[in-house]
Amino acid sequence: MSYMILSLRQKFSFHRLFLFFLATSFVWVVPEISLAGSAPPSTFADLAEKLGPSVVNVYTTQMVKAPTTPHEFFFNDPQTQEMFKRFFGVPSPFGAPGEQPREMKRTSLGSGIIASQDGYIITNNHVVENADEINVKLSSSEEYRAEVIGRDPKTDLALIKIKAAKDLPALRFGDSDGLRVGDWVLAIGNPFGFEQTVTAGIVSGKGRSLGNGPYENFIQTDASINPGNSGGPLFNMDGEMVGINTAIYSRSGGNIGIGFAIPVNTAKNIIEQLKEHGTVTRGWLGVMIQQMTPELAQQFKLDRPIGALVGEVSPGSPAEKAGIKAGDVIVEYNGRELSQMSMLPTLVAQTPVGSKVKVIVVRKGKKKDFTVEIAKLDEDQVAMGGAEEQLGRSLGLAVQTLTPDLAKSLKLEDTQGVLVTNVEPNSPAAEAGLRPGDLILEINQEPVPDLNAYNGIIKNIEKGSIVSFFLKSKGHTRFVALKFE
């Protein structure tokens, strides 16, 4: 099945939490939903009847090679082969299969949204990624073969197209920025393969990030979203699409009232580019940023922890040319206040290349204005920065270069090194005893003067290796070792 589960490294001490990118599943848990707050509308029937025809069932097939006999699942495994060689001095006697692997068909289910009368359909990238064949089933039970127009893995969006015999009922795009926490929303999709399922809930939160990329800015909802809802719409009470359902948090695989949708205001620009070019071009500012904490806000003379703290400015970047420096706190971008750091990468990415935007920073307690001409982000450029980008890595460690301004604000005597800005709970780094504020001086006895050196060493370490860190913490140096999983 084209179905993916990503471990989130035990964010809770007694449960392992899983992030589901929802294509399909074999889980049979159907949880109850408890909605707090004011009473719901008397009925959602009129909305559901009106909007249902704009939602489609997307099902894909993929040909994969499978072992021909049961023993191959175990005895052909590389670790099993290594065990036989190490303990018996011979290869596994079961290593050679009796015949060539056969091909088998793997299917997955998802949902889609009719974006135009001529057959353009929005869905999730993970629903159609690697598919050999994509089919779309309309609410009228008509079925069509679909072609991929373009995919954007970074936002998990895809645009496909069918050639229908008639004009299709396209939905209306709303304004996700206008959503408020507590607003009622409606989800329509095909959870677990059950066609045209309607669920209702409220907006539980906005600006959510799951730590898997710089462009996450999800709407959180308690409307039931389950495997198979991927790519389906989230509607407001005016019948406008405000989000594309894409992920859930779950301990069991079923819905527990924590679902996530891509805001439609984020999707609009992506879909337009996919339709026009088949690919996505993003803007580049050239800063490495980190979350502003209450403690840092006090150090940087902010009345509240807002904005994005600049830890490093890329040489030759638009930010450097405009005069932005490490230690600046970006509090406003192109007229939008940055209530949280995660807003900046998305806003920059959506800015057309060549546009001149106004950026307001706080520098040593005073506001300064800059005009920045946004450049094109190349694939090998860092979109957002050292600290948060490292959170998704197996070490569970977020770092940034120690700049003179940052060292001064934190009252550190050192002028070189990589500062630990965040440690993910229950990660290898946390278990080894690393803490925010530790200064990394060496990795595997190699000097680490800045973030480039850190990244250069880390990317060459093989998984499963033991990594040693030489740290300075609270004025004292020490070594710690952890396993790079």
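[next item in queue]
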Amino acid sequence: MHELSIAVNIAEIVEEEMQKHDASQLNEIVIEIGKMSGVVAELLEFALKESFDNHAVSKANIVFNHIEGKAECLQCHTLQTVENLYNPCINCGSFNLSIIEGKELKIKSLLIE
């Protein structure tokens, strides 16, 4: 479960930002997660809540913004929505697609006090 190592990194980032802004409480964290990132949002939330009992991140409201997969066909340059890395082009059938969006995993915002 690589979500645990991602949760550790997120907790470290949250801690750094809270120290930087002299904050004592994290109310909300918004995480953008691409549908093609390979990260399961439910497992990541579980890791954040259960692995950090007394950490600010365990008490915060966690919001996930899911980013759709988008790709450009390198054959015919058609832009399209994709569900996985192995989708063929909807226009020409080529499997030579370049992923433009959907692999993201980033902290979009923190609501701290």
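[queue empty]
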